[in-house]
Amino acid sequence: MHGTLKSVLGRCIEEKEDWVAQVPLALYVLRQMPHSDSGFSPFDMVFGFRVRTPLDALYHGIYELEGTERSVCDWVAGLMDRLERMRDCAALKMSKSKEGRMRYHNRGSKVREFEVGEVVLYQIPGMSCKLADSWEGPFKVLEKKGRSIIRLGRLVKRRMPRLCMSTVLRSSRREKKLIG
Predict the structure, then answer these.
(1) Distances from the Cα of 6 to the Cαs of 30, 56, 64, in angstroms?
(2) pTM of the full predicted structure?
(3) Residue 112 domain-assigned?
């Protein structure tokens, strides 16, 4: 949000000293822009209708609902219904967007399954030297927490057990043969 606000402010201001006066205008612009995931602007989600600018009032007239008689209770009930439909639609769009991002970011990952008691090696994060050993271990799988979280314990009691993702582990067949 801050990066987007700075970008909008950068386009709105001519002088660097005048940026504080432009913050309300930049926030107004950001609050009426539709979100890429939900398809609705923050203003739409809070108030249940699109923001009316002065140009909209000039083009469409000051009052759109002339000639229609509605009570306040009917208007509030309609607003609540509209807000509920918008919330459901936004939740559906957000879940589809989340699934698409998950597919994109997980496209090269492999699901690795390990059993309790299996001996594994742990990949040291950030190892960029090709000649250095980038795997640490052997570790024993003590417990599985969910699909990809695993609690490891050292075979030689030097450290406390640690939690890690299964994507940074590989099976250690050689150590398993030596130990088992």
Answers:
(1) 11, 27, 36
(2) 0.50
(3) no
Beta strand ranges found along the chain (DSSP E):
119-123, 135-145, 149-154, 162-165, 169-171
Task: Check if the beta carbon of residue 141 is closer than 8 Å to that of residue 117.
Answer: yes
Residues 30 and 88 in one domain: yes
Identity of residue 44: D
Domain that holds residue 47: 2-105
**Are β-strands 135-145 and 149-154 bridged in parallel, bridged antiparallel, or unpaired?**
antiparallel
Task: Let me know if residue 113 belongs to a domain.
Answer: no
Name the most confidently modeled range: 54-58, 103-107, 150-154. 103-107
| Dihedral pair phi/psi, residue 152, rounded to 5° | -110, 150
Residues forming beta bridges with residue 151, ordered by sequence position: 143, 163
